[in-house]
Amino acid sequence: MSTLSVESVFITGSSKGVGLGLVKAFLELPNPPKHVFASCIDPDNDEATELREVTSQNPSVTLMKLDVRSDADIANAVTTVQRVLGERGLNLLINNAAINSQLYGLEALTREEIMSHCDCNVAGPLLVSQALLPLLRKASKQNESKPPGCNRAAIVNLSTGLIKSKNWGQKERRYSYVLTKSASAIASAMMSRELFPDGILVVAMCPWVGED
User: 74: part of which helix (H) or strand (E)?
Assistant: First the structure.
């Protein structure tokens, strides 16, 4: 098994929780990335305080604003990544940003809530992946002697065990969250088949850090 040695990684939803944990974990690797792109909706708010501290202590971290529901934010993020990487490609994209409302049950659903989940949890990862695809293809080409994987070029879409009905339990009624995460997992499988000829690995993974 090869050692994780990623030259560059882009992480969405980095201000707290799993995203922030991933930023810290990459920095603690024996051979940490040269470039860690940590994005969140608002880098200046209180929620991002710890992420700003991590950024100030690690020159390899580039903190940027990215709401995955915003086409303008996505375009600006790509421009920043291109500027920082220069002639190098992007090795790893981790689509972590997601929303999970606490509305339970069929009777509580609204069109606005359903569509906001679709925008963030399905369209967001797809369009961020689309925008960064040229840089992922560049990294794959630059590292074509390596097998498909994070050290070459990869997209990791963070998922949830709740996409499996056996994990629902008696009271699982978060329709918008579970359905959009299921759709994202299907998209991951489709992306995997499409991008494998380019040497880009695509997987959906559940972090299992506690209850969803």
Answer: helix 71-85
